[in-house]
Amino acid sequence: MSSFLAISPLIRPVLHLHPVCSTNRDIMADNLVLLYCCMALGCEKAYNNKFNLKRHVNCRHSLSRQHCCDLCKRQFAGHQNLVEHQYLHSGKKPFACPVCRQRFRQASQLLLHKKLHRMRSQVEVRDSK
Predict the structure, then answer these.
(1) Beta bridge partners of 17
(2) How many domains does the chain have?
(3) What's the pLDDT score for residue 89?
(4) Which residues span the domain enclosing 72?
(5) Which of 6, 35, 104, 108 has its CA 20 to 30 A from that of 114?
């Protein structure tokens, strides 16, 4: 176990069943997933790797706010959070959908949007059969 996991009371690796398969006892053992769960009171966030959980803990639960917006003086624990916040002031949306050209401030927003395109195309294929 890494030293970060050993010293942080907010991080704990936990085995979970995949939610889709958790009711089927025949395939339950194949769908165990190790999740890293935030142990902060009232926080139910879980991640598939400890790096993402560590970033969450530092950004959401740490009292240290090292990155400050020059325009509004809002402070952030992580540099990437500051960069994405600054997009609000500039209006910049650097992530573009290759299908419809809609633009987003965060890569995660673009990934969710792309999933919508994939779901729509799957429905269209299924409906055409």
Answers:
(1) 32
(2) 3
(3) 96
(4) 65-92
(5) 35
Q: Give me the amino acid identity at 34.
A: L
Q: Apex CA 45: angle with CA 43 and CA 47, to 5°?
A: 155
- The tokens describing 90, both together, are 């500039």
Residue 47 three-state SS: strand
Amino acid at 98: P
| Segment-wise mean pLDDT, segments of 10 residues, the chain, 129 residues | 43 50 44 74 82 79 78 84 92 95 92 88 73
* DSSP character at residue 78: S
pLDDT of residue 24: 42
pTM of the model: 0.49
Residues 41 and 82 in one domain: no
Same domain, residue pair 39 and 88: no
Q: 86 and 100, same structural domain?
A: no
